[in-house]
């Protein structure tokens, strides 16, 4: 999964057709729990571009986007937010996939 490098890159990536930003942090236990399942999710949803955002490196972006819990997921299409799965709770593969499936509805 690609790691976000700059705010400018975020602004460009969110203009894409289907982009899902994954907010995470190295110290986040719940984020580490889902790390092993993310490659399978990326493979299953290959029409989406997944980008990891380090919460500590981009704290101002998190505040701007109201992302106060991690791991969290924000989906964008053509510059518009089309879905969010934001909370401080641990997420299962089924919950993440249900979120992505809901984007297609």
TrEMBL record:
Highest taxon in the source lineage: Bacteria
InterPro entries named among the record's database cross-references: Thioredoxin-like_sf, Thioredoxin_domain, Thioredoxin_H-type-like
Residue ranges annotated for the Thioredoxin domain, each copy included: 1-105
Annotated transmembrane regions: none
Stored Pfam families: Thioredoxin
The protein's name: Thioredoxin
Gene source species: Lysinibacillus contaminans
């Amino acid at each position: 999964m690609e790691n976000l490098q700059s705010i400018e890159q975020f602004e460009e990536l969110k203009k894409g057709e289907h982009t899902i930003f994954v907010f995470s942090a190295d110290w986040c236990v719940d984020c580490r729990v889902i790390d092993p399942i993310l490659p399978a999710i990326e493979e299953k949803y290959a029409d989406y571009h997944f980008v990891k955002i380090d919460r500590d490196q981009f704290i101002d972006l998190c505040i701007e986007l109201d992302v106060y819990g991690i791991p969290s997921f924000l989906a964008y299409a053509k510059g518009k937010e089309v879905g969010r799965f934001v909370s401080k709770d641990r997420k299962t593969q089924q919950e993440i996939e249900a979120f992505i499936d809901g984007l297609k509805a």
